[in-house]
Design brief:
The protein is of the alpha/beta class and 157 residues long. It has one domain: Nucleotidyltransferase, domain 5 (2-Layer Sandwich), CATH 3.30.420. It has 5 helices and 6 strands, in the order βββαβαααβαβ. It has a 6-stranded mixed sheet, sandwiched between helices. β1 and β2 form a beta hairpin. The protein starts with a strand and ends with a strand.
Length: 157
């Protein structure tokens, strides 16, 4: 992988929808590879997908080196990918998020993406299709859910 690019594989899991859930973001950075994960007692799959995205990007932005100028987030969530890449998020923001679920999280995503100091690309990857990094994010999200890991748990990988 290009050492000037941070790659993040984010995922969310939920047992029931709503129900207990977990998220994970596996982050590949110059300084090392980590996973940030956590859980919620009463949530939805979409909320966990968004939380994984936000925690991954936030952790990468805090820990990136000067040489790392770009972040590529790989997600198997069409909800996240379409909202960002198809312009839904911008339309929602212009309409003050009227009738949009998970407004608190989408507002944070919008602020991060709208910042002039970020260079973030979002790429969809098919879930459960053998992409090793995505499978790892899925496993960590399920572990976070099942073990009720605390928000922002960091695991070195």
């Amino acid at each position: 992988m290009d050492k000037s690019v941070i790659h993040i594989y984010s995922d969310g899991a939920c047992s029931g929808n709503p129900g207990p859930g977990g998220y994970a973001a596996v982050i590949y950075m110059k300084s090392g590879n980590i996973c940030v994960c956590g859980s919620s007692e009463d949530t939805t799959n979409n909320r966990m997908e968004l939380t994984g995205f936000l925690n991954g990007v936030g952790t990468a932005l805090i820990n990136k080196s000067e040489e790392e100028y770009k972040i590529v987030v790989h997600t198997d969530s069409k909800y996240v990918e379409n909202a960002i890449n198809c312009g839904w998020l911008n339309k929602w923001a212009k309409k003050n998020y009227d009738k949009v679920k998970n407004v608190d999280l989408w507002e944070m995503v919008f602020k991060i993406l709208d910042s002039r100091n970020t260079n973030i690309e979002v790429v969809w990857c098919k879930g459960h299709s053998g992409v090793i990094q995505n499978e790892l994010a899925d496993k960590f999200a399920v572990v976070a859910m099942n073990e009720r890991l605390k928000e922002g748990t960091i695991i070195e990988i």
